[in-house]
Every structure is written in C-alpha cells, then in structure tokens.
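Field log, afternoon session.

UNIT: design team B
ACTIVITY: writing a sequence onto a fixed backbone
BACKBONE:
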C-alpha cells in the first residue's frame, strides 16, 4: 500500500517517529530504531552530542543523516528564546537542516507545554525559514493557531511525557484532526502498542514515542511491536470500522432456508 506520511513536502515510508534518549547505549539505540522501521528520529540537542561537543561520542556516527532524517528537538527548554537559540544551533550543526521539533515546557515535573511561549517560538522559527513540527497541548483552538502560524505538523500530547498513560482525551484529538490541514502526530504518553494503534485508528497521521520503547523490558522487541501497531491502526482507519451497536438483530450468517424458518 502506497500511503506515505508527507511533512513539509517530503514523503516518509514510516508513520512511526522515534526518540533516541534513555537507551543503555548507542548500540541498543540503533537496534531499536532499526526494529521500529522509523525514518525520522528525534534528538534532544541539549542532551545529546551531534557535534557540539568535540571528542565525545557522536550520535550521528550511529544514526547517519544519510540513512535517517534527524529531527532536532528543544527538550529541556522553558522559554521561547531558549528554544529558538537551540534550534538555530542545530541548523548549523546539521548543515542548514530546516525540519525541527519545537517543544517549550511549562515545568520540569509535568513537562506540560507552555503554550504562550510555544506560540511565540513557533512564529519566530517559521519566519526564520524552519519547518516546525510542534509539541502542544490537546487544545483544538491553540492547535489551529499553530497551524495558522505556518507549522508543518501539529503534535498534541496523548498524556504527559513519559507517563505511559495512553490517550486520555480522544475527543480533543478528533477535534484537532478534523480541523487540521497539516499532519497531526500524537506526541507523548504512549505506553504500549495498543495506544499507538488507537491513535492511528482515530485518524492521526503518525505517532512519536521514545520512553515506551526505551524503557520497555525488551526495547528492540517493543520497537517491532510499535511498528506493527502503527501500521495496523493506519490500515484500520483507512478501511473504516463497522458501526457500533449495543447488539445487532442481523446475524453474520444467513438464516433463510433453515429448518423451521
């Protein structure tokens, strides 16, 4: 089935996007990402060396940009200014790379997005030529504001980052999906494969995750499970589920011709 994910005019074969943090080492990182089938991998510029710290292990040696689309993110930033500064550094390190993931956090405990600062940073980055994929609350109004600014993808949380609580408010996600003209990618809160499948069945264009894979008992096996879940959820969405009924008067098997009928 030819059904690519298109972001900022570029097509990707996988609708699963994965992070690169929290693994025990770079070898496990690469094995899990290979098992996930992901084409886009996100990297926290403030926590991971991609060349800004000469002499230290460089993630790009394990995940070369020739094989993966590196998506620098602003994890750990709590203001618009910090986020913009971080992504400008990432653009220099990645030779002008424009596709980025913006997240401006409100507090270090919940990691809930600070939406006023997010909107401010998004406006600056779009004007500066970045293709901005943006982590946000599941507020349909603010999601639409981010799209109107010119963001390339809207990334509402399913639940808090690292919580593994799954999709807590499917109705808000549906409102965002129904109103969006850019890809909607669930970001944060996925805990297991069924969460990813539900996100895709709701009509999300993709799912981004890190903790659910990296902190699983067997990360590589979980990465494989997530790949299958995203694919199955997407196919189910495209197929269209049967209507829900409390119970049905129409059995699956025909009853005409039965004895006594």
């Amino acid at each position: 089935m030819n059904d690519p994910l298109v972001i900022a005019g570029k097509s990707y074969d996988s609708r699963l996007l994965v992070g690169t943090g929290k693994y025990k080492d770079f070898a496990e990182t690469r094995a899990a990402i290979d098992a996930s089938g992901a084409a886009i991998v996100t990297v926290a510029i403030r926590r991971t060396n991609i060349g800004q710290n000469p002499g230290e292990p460089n993630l790009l040696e394990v995940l070369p940009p020739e094989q993966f689309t590196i998506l620098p993110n602003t994890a750990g930033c709590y203001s618009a200014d910090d986020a913009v500064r971080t992504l400008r550094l990432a653009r220099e390190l990645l030779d002008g790379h424009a596709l980025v993931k913006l997240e401006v956090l409100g507090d270090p405990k919940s990691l809930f997005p600070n939406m006023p600062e997010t909107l401010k940073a998004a406006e600056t980055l779009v004007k500066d030529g970045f293709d901005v994929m943006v982590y946000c609350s599941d507020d349909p109004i603010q999601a639409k504001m981010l799209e109107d600014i010119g963001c390339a993808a809207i990334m509402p949380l399913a639940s808090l980052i690292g919580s593994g609580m799954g999709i807590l408010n499917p109705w808000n996600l549906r409102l965002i999906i129904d109103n969006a003209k850019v890809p909607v990618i669930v970001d944060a809160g996925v805990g297991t494969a069924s969460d990813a499948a539900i996100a895709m069945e709701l009509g999300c264009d993709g799912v981004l995750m890190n903790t659910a894979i990296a902190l699983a008992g067997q990360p590589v096996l979980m990465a494989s499970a997530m790949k299958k879940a995203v694919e199955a959820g997407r196919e189910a969405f495209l197929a269209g589920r049967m209507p829900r009924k409390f119970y049905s008067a129409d059995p699956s098997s025909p009853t005409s011709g039965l004895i006594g009928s």
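LOG NOTE: The first strand starts at residue 5 and ends at 7.
NEXT ACTIVITY: expression trials, pending approval
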